[in-house]
Design goal:
The N and C termini lie far apart (138 Å). The longest helix is centred in the N-terminal third of the chain and has 37 residues. This protein has a 34-stranded antiparallel sheet that branches. Among the domains are: 126 residues, Lipopolysaccharide (LPS) transport protein A like domain (lipopolysaccharide transport protein A fold, Sandwich), CATH 2.60.450.10; 148 residues, lipopolysaccharide transport protein A fold, CATH 2.60.450.10. The protein contains 2 helices and 34 strands.
């Protein structure tokens, strides 16, 4: 009996011992498979693993999962070749990392460190993020599953349909499709390339925002700014802070620039400057618009043109300045009236030209002028004035219904006065030398008028001097005549057809008779300095 009792006791002890050993082996598996997989929400679940082992060397209750490993947390699935899973709800995964979130974002890599409590992941080596129309590659990506925010501090590349973007740093906000980039940012599009210091981009709206020095280069132009935005879908943009648009022949500055790439229209507002590098010409104003396809620029608001010559500078002011560049389809036509100047401006010339509208004044050291409208052909350096045009060359005032000037690189070459042509120079407060005719051709040498040819109804009044004192006045009528000047004063007159000339002593002629018909002295209108061209 006692021997039997002892056997039973030994058997019971062995059975208990084996049970404890078996319990010690099985309980972790049961608790792992039942407790961990049933708890949802913030708890990471194991969906599948080829094998599971405990690794006491790692501590933290580390479990090692090998072969086709799958985790799940709420709407996020994680796949890998192997992983360590810890009691604090975190894991380290290795090989063929794949994170799938909400069936909309897929992330890939070689290594993954994930905290299930904060839902923050660090994916490294051969990182790929695929979100439908957006594809990102980098070396290390930090991603918050809870907020769907990812960022990288290693060079990355993002491909979105026709756009390719690279940068050193970047943030990606998946919920609103915003991407922020910094350092060496380059956005490449088939139509343009953007280089920027800091840039924001929305993959849905396709709008890019620039913060910092930025250039946009295309076949048509180059744009620079330090602040602005660009709608890549609509090809609309706004640029500010030291912004400019550079084309083949022009450069446009402004406090704010607006550009429509599809229509080829650029606008500039405040402190506007349009530079024509080919002709050393600048146009300034408060507002400008440039039509790229027709190569036309319009500037208004304190508009000022500045053109540099070898030893002098021409300044032109008007209510509106319009510059037209070369255009092969335009037909060259002669501009004969102010009406044609306005109506035919697009077809007036196939060369570069300038139009100035209303209240035009210009200043050059050796030439000043005033008129209502002006046309300037930059290619052949011809200038036409309309609307009570007046020119001042040294001591001479020239007026006509219309005036045409040929301006060389160093000096004025010639001029044509048509309709009621008049040349006047002042002798004293009451007396004026005068030349009148239907048309006149004037010729210059070293910017000094030395010959005037008068055609049709020629009339002259000029004063004879003796030792700089006025002695007599010569009044002559002749159809055609040539007038030779010296030091900008009448030196000799050659009458061509049947002249009728009389020399009067000053005391024998009334001062009232010493002014030809339509005489007008416009000294008050003459700009004596560059600033005077803004006075009307």
């Amino acid at each position: 009996m006692k021997r039997t009792s002892n056997k039973k006791l030994i058997y019971t002890k062995v059975k208990s011992f084996l049970f404890l050993v078996l319990f010690a082996l099985i309980t972790p598996l049961l608790s792992y498979s039942q407790s961990d997989t049933k708890i949802k929400g913030k708890k990471v679940e194991i969906v599948h693993a080829g094998s599971l082992k405990f690794d006491k060397h790692l501590g933290n209750g580390a479990k090692r999962l090998i072969g086709d490993v799958q985790f799940k947390q709420e709407n996020t699935l994680m796949f890998c070749d192997s992983a360590y899973f810890y009691e604090n709800n975190s894991l380290d995964a290795f090989g063929h990392i794949h994170i799938k979130q909400n069936d909309s974002i897929n992330m890939y890599g070689d290594l993954l460190s994930y905290d299930g409590n904060t839902k923050k992941a660090v994916i490294s080596k051969n990182v790929i993020v695929d979100k439908g129309d957006m594809h990102l590659t980098t070396d290390i990506l930090n991603y918050d599953m809870g907020t769907s925010v990812g960022y990288y501090t290693t060079p990355a590349k993002i491909v979105n349909k026709e756009n390719v973007l690279t940068s050193d740093n970047g943030y990606y906000y998946a919920k609103n499709n915003d991407l922020n980039f910094k350092k060496n940012v380059v956005l490449t599009n088939p139509q343009f390339v953007i280089n920027s210091d800091t840039m924001k981009y929305n993959t849905t709206s396709k709008i890019t925002y620039f913060l910092g020095p930025t250039t946009i280069k295309s076949k048509e132009n180059l744009i620079y700014c330090e602040d602005g935005w660009y709608d890549t879908k609509k090809d609309l943009s706004r640029f500010s802070k030291n912004s400019y648009i550079l084309t083949k022949e022009q450069k446009m500055f402004g406090d704010s620039l607006y550009y429509n790439r599809k229509k080829g229209i650029g606008r500039a507002i405040k402190n506007v400057v349009v530079i024509d590098t080919a002709h050393k010409m600048d146009i300034k104003g408060d507002y400008a618009i440039h039509y790229e396809f027709t190569n036309v620029s319009v500037v208004t608001g304190n508009a000022l043109l500045t053109q540099k010559y070898e030893k002098d500078t021409l300044y032109v002011h008007a209510d509106t300045l319009k510059a037209i560049g070369k255009k092969d389809s335009l037909q060259k036509k002669e501009i004969k009236s102010e009406k044609q100047l306005t109506n035919n401006q697009q077809s007036a010339t196939n060369n570069q030209s300038l139009f100035a509208y209303h209240k035009v004044k210009f200043f050059k050291k050796d030439l000043q002028g005033k008129c209502d409208s002006l046309y300037y052909n930059l290619s052949d350096s011809t200038m036409r004035l309309f609307g009570m045009p007046t020119l001042w060359s040294q001591e001479n005032q020239l007026t006509a219904d219309s005036i045409k000037l040929l301006i060389g690189s160093k000096s004025i070459k010639s001029m044509d006065l048509k309709g009621n042509s008049f040349i006047v120079s002042q002798e004293d407060s009451l007396r004026f030398n005068q030349i009148r005719g239907k048309t006149m051709q004037g010729y210059f040498k070293d910017n000094n008028l030395y010959l005037v040819h008068v055609e049709g109804n020629g009339q002259t009044i000029y004063y004879a001097k003796d030792k700089q004192k006025l002695k007599a006045v010569n009044r002559a009528d002749c159809s055609d005549l040539n007038i030779y000047l010296k030091d900008n004063k009448i030196n000799n007159i050659v009458f061509i057809n049947k002249p009728d000339a009389t020399l009067y002593p000053l005391k024998q002629i009334d001062v009232k008779e010493l002014k030809l018909k339509d005489f007008s002295w416009r000294a008050k209108d003459r700009p004596l300095t560059m600033k005077d061209i803004f006075k009307w």
